[in-house]
Each structure stands twice: as C-alpha cells, then as structure tokens.
Amino acid sequence: MAYQYIIYEKSEGIATITLNRPEALNAFSKEVIEEVLNAIEDIKADENVRVVILTGAGEKAFSAGADIKAMKGMNALKARELSLMGEKLCLALENLEKPVIAAINGYALGGGLEVAMACDIRIASENARMGQTEINIGLIPGWGGTQRLTRLVGATKAKELIFTGKMIDAKTAEQIG
User: Residue 47's domain is classified under what CATH number?
Assistant: First the structure.
C-alpha cells in the first residue's frame, strides 16, 4: 500500500512508522490516523515483525497532536469523529501484541503525547518537549490521555500537567515516570 502521510518500513523484524508531515509538526489528521491504523493492521498480520518504532519526521516534532487547523473547519460531528479515531489509534497501539517504542524527537503535545503514552516504551531526545497542552485552547485530552498519564505519573502530577498545560523536557519526564 502506498502512503501519503507516513513512511512505513520493515527490516529485520523491525517495523518503523514515521509520521511524515513535518510542515505541520506531524499533526494527526483523519488521513494520518487512517494510514497508521492500516500499518498497524499489516504489522499484526506479519509474524516476522517483532518490534515497532513510531516516530516523527524532522527534528521539530514527534507530533503536535490533533491537526487543530483542520479541526477549525469541522462541525461538532466531524470533530467528534476525529477524537474517536485518535482514541482508536491509541487503543490499537496499546493492544498490539508486539512491543511499540515511541521515539520522541522534539514536541509531543496533546494527542501526540497521548499516542506516545499508548506505546510500551518512550525514548525521548534531549530536545523533546512534552505536554497535555490542549487546556490552553479550551480542550481536554480526548484520546485517553487523562487515564494513561495518571497511570504513568500518578494522579497528583497528572492533574498538575493537564490543568496547567505545562510542557516538560525529557529529563523531567524521566524523573516523574
């Protein structure tokens, strides 16, 4: 299958999915999510794949989350559809019976961080900045991020990060869990 918004490669038991919209900080549109879900289905069916790496193209971002520019033109029904697709993506990653590693380069914000948290292992570069920043535009994490973040860092720290929209660096993320 040909992909427009991701780069999907398999080599020596490793499947690599690269979000490939660096001009949009690898934001998740409906089309990006569909392509990643298609790649996951292929990975499930391929017994030669032993591990999955999910990353973002370019140096600026793993993913800035949902495509806010695209969401501005959506009615409530279409926005809800995108939210449900994001949740489906996170569940697909979380339930994949092969280890998934999020290689976080640059920003992992909002839905981008939610996707990274759905992975089994997160490895962040020194320039990584992470946050559930949706609150800054009047939204809350909608892809299961409130639950995943709480499981990873505890309720008190999760509330602080979600309520304030504060971004943290890789070192801080490692320290808090």
Answer: 3.90.226.10
